Amino acid sequence: MQHRPRKRFSQNFLTDAAVIDSIVREISPRSDDRVIEIGPGLAALTGPLAAIVQSLHVIEIDRDITTQLRTAFDPQKVIVHEGDALEFDFAAFGPDLRVIGNLPYHISTPLLFHLRASAHALRDVHAMLQKEVVERITAPPGSSDYGRLSVMLQYRFEIESLLDVPRFAFRPQPKVESAVMRMIPKPVAGLHARDESMLEDTVARAFAQRRKTLRNTLGAVLSPSDFSALAIDPQARAQTLSVEDFVRIANYRSTRADA
Predict the structure, then answer these.
(1) SS3 62
(2) Any idea what the CATH number is for the domain that residue 45 is in?
(3) 2 in a domain, yes or no?
(4) What one-character DSSP code corresponds to residue 70?
(5) CA-based, 20 to 30 A from 159: which of 28, 54, 97, 109?
(6) How confident is the model at residue 105 (pLDDT cuts 50, 70, 90)?
(7) Residue 10 in contact with residue 74, Cβ under 8 Å?
(8) What single-letter DSSP state applies at residue 100?
(9) SS3 assignment, position 178
(10) pTM above 0.90, yes or no
C-alpha cells in the first residue's frame, strides 16, 4: 500500500519488520480472538493479524486508506469501518474484545478515556503511544510523571510498558520516541469507587494546579476536619497520593453528599 502521510491525522506509518514482529508476539493473537485495530494505516499490523484471526475489524478515518484496505483484503476477513475512533462504540461488539492500535498521538488521551468507558467489554488493549505518555500512564505515586491520566487509567486497568519503539521504525520519522503498552481491565468486583464521576472530579481538582497543596486544590470540597477524618495531610501535593487514596477521598465525598 502507498499513501502520502497527512499531518492533520498525525500519520506516521510503522515500517520496521522487527518491531512489527515484536508487537505481534506481545499481542499473541489466536484464531478465534475478537479483534479491533485502531488506525491500521498501511496495514503493518493488519496483515500479520489478518493472517491469524478469523475476522479483524479495523477503524480508519482516512478515506483514501480505507479504500486501499478494502481492495487489499478479503472483506469477509478484514471488516473496514471508516470513521473517528473517538465516536466508535466498542462496547457494541460484546464482551472479551481485544483492541490494538498505533494511536494518533494528538488524540491519544481522549481516546484512552473513551476506551476506559468500554473497559467492561474489553479483554485487553495493546496500544502504541508517544513514549512520554506511556511513562505518565505507568508512573507510580511520587513521580513527577504521575498525574490525572495515571490515576484514572490505573484505577481501571493493570498496565505495563512492553517495548520502546525508535523513531526510525516509522515513515516519516516522528519527532518523539514511542512505546507499546498493555492494559488489562481490572475485575469490576475489585473497583471500589462508589461514584466514578466523583472520583474523576476529585482527581481533576487535585491535579489542576500540581504545585499547590491539597489544602488549596481540594479546599473547596474538603474542610480541615475532613482531611483529618481521611488521615490525609492537607499540606501534601496530589502526586504523593495513591490511587487508593483518591478512591477514599471520592467515596468520602460521595457518602457525605448522600447524607
Answers:
(1) coil
(2) 3.40.50.150
(3) no
(4) H
(5) 54
(6) confident
(7) no
(8) E
(9) strand
(10) yes
